[in-house]
Specification:
single chain, 614 residues, mainly beta, nine-stranded mixed sheet, globular
């Protein structure tokens, strides 16, 4: 117990203890008159707790079920108990009634027939239900199959967390200086291959000399990289120029390589780093026996210059960390930081379909190791300007081709000048303009961005769309780009239908940057946002008469939310207002349900269990 031995001095934790004592959410015995009523309460007969309660005994989160298995739970005060088994990806589910055994636990058998009904999955859940009330849920179970594992040679590619930011967060431990922080989230837009890359969110804010933050995974699926002599990965940094560090712990020593110069750019790069370029913290070399025992992998961000006062919050993107083999000639191309960085034509996605295999080389082949002796293919870029491609509209078309003459990327910038303010409220991308650009580029895979300016030259808004999506009858969804984060944000449930000739007109009443998404991409964005709808706390204890607040997980962008409604299962125990403020009324338990409606009309309900103490 922290103690005080003078008015100004005390045990090292005394200040924190005093703050805790004075906190409105803390209750100490001297504030309850408990000690003054011991004799009174000693003879009082209390009623036993009669509410339904319970928890799962087996299996556990992340378990693998390959054969018929007993589902077991401990439940009190219930008449009927069952287990609901779900494949959360496909929506299949079945309910298994449970029977009470001699040990007091409830059990149901998950048979082979029922496993076959659910199907093979890595994202199953089992919910314990008693008298119609959901008591607990275990998640990310594998049924009928072993969990997917990364191929040999893959250090990290973010595709083996079954789309769960929670599992990703659990895999990485963080460490930060005061005022600094970092976290990972899965990202379907910024990636090299597969389904996910990762967004490294960091904050450096301090005036002190310690300015750093990082995340480390010490539970790697592959640990032997002795068959390779280099590490390859994809990254898109933020142009802030901070000291970005890739760290590998092997054979008990930590080795690092710095991306500081690369961090001054905002382009996407495929980076190859010879293991010999990694610097050991105690002077060791990352080779031989050390590479047979890779123990951890980490990403760090420090201030640059080191120890300088800084206030920056941003996002870095990474994907496809894998072992590779390169020739001496290729290794000699490394820059002063030890990096062989090849700028990618696609800045936020697949740049050529590299496989997840760890035995790929700088040529992107899968399943074999080659040693390239030739210079990597170079990209040639040509720009063409079109004056008055349409009324009051100019265009610039940029086409990138490899040394074989194949188109590897194309984008067009249209600038339309309008005379009346009312003309900025709608944006039309003309089929005639698109046809001219497609013909000139030699591909329909063109990202077209049309910017609207007023008579004085001020940019009012922009709309981007891929020409491939401008097909007659296609339904497109308009979303807005968050200027701070770059994330796509929902606007409404409205969709825009492409006309018979391939023209599309959208409402752009507010200033900003917009993107038109096809149905598949719109659905993926909606699913991603729904996954972010979660509460910071799903259980809370509140003293009678006190207040608490429903708080959402930090990953939820409230710009996507149209409406939130709150309800209490027992208003006599707790009430909750339209702002999510909970008031404890009397001792007991209640569930606060929070229904979140997104701007596209999709909904999700999350729950918080409130225990009110006397």
């Amino acid at each position: 117990m922290p103690y005080k031995y003078s008015d100004t001095m005390g045990q090292e934790m005394i200040n924190e203890f005093i703050d805790y004592y004075n906190n409105a959410d803390s209750v100490f015995g001297n504030g309850t008159n408990f000690y003054g009523n011991i004799d009174k309460y000693a003879g009082v007969k209390t009623d036993n707790y009669k509410d339904v309660s319970g928890y799962m005994v087996a299996p556990f989160d992340m378990d693998t079920i390959l054969k018929p298995t007993a589902l077991k739970a401990s439940v009190s005060n219930a008449g009927e108990v069952s287990f609901v088994v779900r494949d959360t990806a496909k929506g299949k589910q079945l309910t298994l009634p449970a029977a009470k055994g001699s040990d007091g636990c409830y059990t149901a058998q998950l048979t082979q027939k029922e496993m076959d009904q659910i199907g093979k999955t890595d994202v199953a859940s089992i919910t314990l239900v008693a008298d119609g009330k959901e008591l607990s849920t275990i998640t990310n179970l594998s049924i009928g199959k072993e969990k997917d594992k990364a191929p040999a040679g893959v250090l990290e590619n973010f595709d083996y967390y079954v789309g769960s930011n929670g599992l990703l967060d659990a895999a990485y431990g963080g460490n930060s200086a005061a005022g600094c922080s970092s976290s990972f989230t899965l990202d379907q837009e910024h990636k090299a291959d597969g389904t996910y890359g990762a967004a490294f969110h960091y904050k450096l804010k301090t005036t002190g000399s310690e300015v750093w933050t990082g995340l480390v995974n010490a539970t790697l699926g592959n640990t032997d990289f002795s068959a390779y002599n280099a590490l390859k990965f994809w990254t898109k940094l933020d142009g802030k120029g901070q000291k970005v560090v890739v760290q590998i712990k092997a054979g008990g020593e930590e080795y690092e390589v710095y991306l500081t110069n690369l961090a001054k750019t905002e382009d996407a790069y495929e980076v190859t780093v010879p293991f010999s370029a990694f610097k050991g913290k105690t002077g060791g070399k990352l080779s031989g026996d050390a590479l047979k025992d890779v123990q951890a992998f980490g990403l760090w961000c420090n201030s640059n210059p080191a120890g300088s006062a800084v206030d920056v919050e941003s996002v870095l993107y990474f994907d496809a960390f894998k072992g590779t083999t390169i020739s001496d000639a290729e290794a000699a191309k490394a820059d002063a930081d030890g990096l062989i960085a090849v700028k990618q034509t696609s800045q936020s996605g697949n740049n050529g379909g590299n496989s997840s295999s760890g035995s790929s080389t700088s040529g992107g082949n899968s399943g074999s190791t080659t040693t390239p002796d030739t210079k990597p293919s170079e990209t040639r870029k040509t720009d063409k300007t079109f004056e008055n491609i349409a009324k009051d509209t100019n265009a610039t078309l940029t086409v990138e081709k490899n040394d074989k003459g194949e188109v590897t990327g194309a984008r067009a910038k249209l600038e339309k000048t309008v005379k009346n303010a009312s003309e900025t409220k709608k944006t039309t991308i003309s089929a005639d303009v698109v046809a001219k650009l497609v013909k000139e580029a030699g591909t329909s895979d063109i990202t077209i961005t049309q910017t609207t300016k007023n008579a004085s030259g001020k940019v009012m808004n922009s709309v981007s769309v891929n020409a491939k999506d401008l097909q007659a009858g296609k339904k497109l969804t308009l979303v807005k780009v968050d200027k701070k984060t770059g994330e796509k944000v929902l606007i409404s449930s409205r969709t825009y239908k492409v006309s018979k000739d391939g023209t599309v007109t959208v409402d752009t009443k507010d200033a900003g940057d917009y993107v038109l998404l096809n149905e598949k991409d719109a659905k993926a964005l909606s699913s991603k946002i729904l996954k972010s709808v979660a509460l910071k706390d799903i259980k809370k204890t509140v003293a009678n008469g006190k207040k608490a607040k429903v708080t959402f997980d930090k990953n939820l962008n409230m710009e996507n939310v149209k409406k939130i409604t709150y309800t209490s299962s027992k208003k006599s125990v707790v009430t909750v207002n339209k702002n999510g403020t909970i008031v404890a009324k009397k001792a007991g338990k209640a569930v606060v349900k929070v229904k979140v409606t997104l701007k596209n009309g999709k909904t999700k309900t999350v729950k918080m269990t409130i225990k009110v103490t006397k």
